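Predict the 3D structure for this chain.
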Amino acid sequence: MQPELPFWGTIKEKTDDGHNIAEQDYLISEGYAILQAFGNHPSFLMMSLGNELWGSKAKIDSFLKDYKAFDNRILYTQGSNNH
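Done. Predicted structure below.
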């Protein structure tokens, strides 16, 4: 199983026009909820941050770094069909 965050769009830095902190906070918390709910499932192999993501690769990498620190048992990917 490869769950992904419920997002298809652009991840922006705080300094970018149109940055939506509420949206990013939701996505981050949803990722932790996925890891907590399914992290022990034997079929949980990989987690993706979303589908067709755009924007800051550095910000996307910071999400991955935090999730890996929280649970390093699975593989992570920036997304499906990114950039």
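The chain has one domain: 19-77.
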